[in-house]
Design goal:
By secondary structure, the chain is mainly α. The protein has one domain. The chain contains two helices and no strands. It is rod-shaped, with a radius of gyration of 22 Å.
């Protein structure tokens, strides 16, 4: 006999659904939302908002790093040309 598992124990069912969809866990998803076509509308909206914010923040950090690297290169080139 399989023990009963409380899948939403730590953060609740909504968080479980969101995580399941975000990582596209679909072999036997406990919340049945591991793929966009399986997820309910509320989970899809939340996942879209979460992913948009996460990817936007990541893109900003990457752009800032490229600018920082470019600034250092430009300063080095400028110093060498004097």
């Amino acid at each position: 006999m399989k023990p009963e598992v409380d899948h939403g124990k730590w953060s609740g069912d909504s968080a479980g659904k969101l995580i399941e969809l975000t990582i596209e866990y679909a072999p036997e998803p406990p919340y049945k939302s591991g793929r966009p076509e399986l997820a309910d509308a509320e989970t899809l909206v939340t996942a879209n908002q979460f992913m948009t914010a996460e990817f936007a923040a990541s893109a900003v950090l990457q752009a800032a790093q490229r600018l920082k690297t470019s600034s250092h290169r430009m300063a080095a080139i400028s110093a060498c040309s004097r």
